Structure formats: structure tokens, C-alpha cells
Amino acid sequence: AARPLTAAEGPRNVTIVQFSRDGKEIATVTVSRLIKTDAEWRHQLSHPSYWVTRHADTERPFTGDSWNLEDHGLFRCICCDLALFSSQAKFDSGTGWPSFWQPLAEENVVDTVDGSLMEVRTAVSCRLCDAHLGHVFNDGPAPSGLRYCMNSAALRFVKLG
Predict the structure, then answer these.
(1) Catalytic residue among 80, 126, 129, 149
(2) Which of 32, 67, 128, 157 has a CA 20 to 30 Å removed from the CA of 18?
(3) Is 149 one of the annotated active-site residues of the chain?
(4) pTM here?
(5) Tens of pLDDT, residues 53-70
(6) CA 85, 101, 35, 10: dihedral to nearest 10 degrees?
């Protein structure tokens, strides 16, 4: 199953793109990867967010709070607040999960092979804290042809303007 890296795995430092509160790109920076204990994540997150982000669970379709959200804003990681997706790239995929045709910055997400459901999929996680976000598929709209199918429980929406 797809799972976040442990403290002993992966890089100590990661390169991410920082965005301001109003969605403007600030800088590309290299920072320490955010690593917390299981107990710390459990304390910080709601039950659904904990299971989705820390154990690669999936929320039921049409149940999350942002699958049909149409406000203008940014979708940030529920665990570390890293800016991940813009409402400008969001579209209605009909799946019941928030879907985007591209991330806000490629640097802020990580794609990994996930063979957990007897089919090979591409899992998407947060570059800064390794939170499982969802999966990306090759059946999205132009211009990318991609569908980043994310879990609402992994995202925090920040309304702009």
C-alpha cells in the first residue's frame, strides 16, 4: 500500500515552492522535511484526516467538504499547510472527490507507484510532510490530461479575495 516515508527513509531536506496567503509565489526553498511521531499526528489531526494522510486511507466519495467547492482559493496540506492546489485548476470530475488538472507547483507533490488495489496507480503525497493526498490519473481535461483526485480530508481550503 502507499504509505508516507518514515523518518529513516527519504531525504532529510526537500525543495518546495512557498506561496503567500494570497496565493502569490514567494520563493523556491530547501527546508528540513517535516517529520512527526504517530502520536503527534494523531493529536494534531481529525480522525478522518489522520487515517487518510498518515495511513493512505480514502474517504468515501461525495462526503468530503471540498469535493464540490467552487470558491476561489488555495488548497493546502491539512498536516503542514504547504500550498498544493489552486481552485483555478479544479474541475468537476464526477467522482465525488476534489479533482485538479495540475498542482500549484510540481515541487510540492510527490508521485509514487501504488499497487495496493490489484492495479497499479500513482499515489500523490505532500513533499514537505509525506501526507498521502490521493492519486493522479491520465484521464483529466486539457491542458494536462491529468486528474489529481484528492481527498478532502487531506486538504485545508483557504478562500482568496
Answers:
(1) 149
(2) 67
(3) yes
(4) 0.91
(5) 999 999 999 999 888 888
(6) -150
